[in-house]
Amino acid sequence: MYKNIILPASLLAGTIIGAGVFALPFVFEKAGIVTSLFYLGLFSACFVFIHLMYADLILKTEGGRNFHRFPGYAKIYLGNWGFWTSILMTIVGMLFVLTVYLILSISFVNLIKPIGLDISDASKLLIFWLFGSAAIFLGIRRIVLSEFLITGGIIVIILIIFGYGLNHFGKIISLPAFNLQNIFLPYGAVLFALAGRVAIPAVVSYFQKIRRPLAEIKKPIILGTLLPALVYLLFVFGIWGLSEVVSEDAISGLVGQIPKEILALIGVFGLISLWSSYIVIGLDIKNALKFDLKFPKILAGLAVVVLPPLIYFWGFQSFLTLVSLIGGIFIALEGIFIVLMWLRARKMKSEEVIFKKLNPLIIYALIMIFIGGILYEIIH
């Protein structure tokens, strides 16, 4: 059970659990408890199907896990327009994600005293950017960092906050159930927080290496997609219990609510996790520019280093706005692409690997949910 379910499920869950969690307490409080639980449940179910579809797509494509990335599948099943759209969508989306990490770095530095009091927010951001960019430009992929370090740091933060927040459970249950004025507010944030498509090739590869029947991959994908939702609830309840006023990034509102030593520990864990993720995503963008768009190596590195702070200083300085934009547009587009590619793959390949049968209503519902998110974010 450990090798067949727990280990691959942890790989997927560890990839999903990330910066998106910090947007949830604010948007959930504004939307209401019942509304938020509805979004979390609905989108968790959506991503179960999306992740299973993507795994099915990889397994149905000859040489899928060895020779293709997301744009490669788009080219095979959707043609050149799908390839170029997915390239631009992926690169631009990931650049915005790096900008999100820059914004969060300010909040985590502020938890570490006395550093947080001595320098401006722009200086904190630039220091974090400098260390992350140096690793990206030099091509240092992990140093002594690992997925365990990234995920472990965030989980430690979540457990600490939940433990302190339990002392204020009465405040949590007093929050409103609904707020129709903000009923669509969690849309992009929840999509951003639950997306884990990038980990599916690794899960498929793992099952092929241990030579298990590929049909068994369904259980760890389902578990690995649903587990982060439960972890997110712990974090949300902890923040609600602790914060007098819930901040957009969840972290800023903790100052004064937790002992300084614990705040400093959260700040250190948060910065290490952000830094490691920043390097990994930055190198992925660099490789996409180099191999897919044929950028010279130096130019690809410079683009990844320079563009995130430019995006920030250009005016994209709201954590919640960026998270909603990424989730509501880029993640939603990615979901639509996966559904369309899976439909084409099903027509071209007769063998059934994961799905024996899928109700057409589920397919239409997935597309409409993602289209709805895109339209809301654009109009909003």
List descriptors.
single chain, 380 residues, mainly alpha, Amino acid/polyamine transporter I, 17 helices, 75% helix, 0% strand
- In the predicted model, the low-confidence regions spanning at least 5 consecutive residues are none
Counting structural domains, the number is 1
Mean pLDDT: 86
Q: What is the architecture at the second tier of CATH?
A: Up-down Bundle
**CATH homologous superfamily classification:** Amino acid/polyamine transporter I
SS-derived structural category: mainly alpha
What does this structure look like?
This protein is an all-alpha fold. It has a single domain, classed as Amino acid/polyamine transporter I (Up-down Bundle), CATH 1.20.1740. The chain is built from 17 helices and no strands. Helix 2 crosses helix 3, helix 2 crosses helix 13 and helix 3 crosses helix 12.
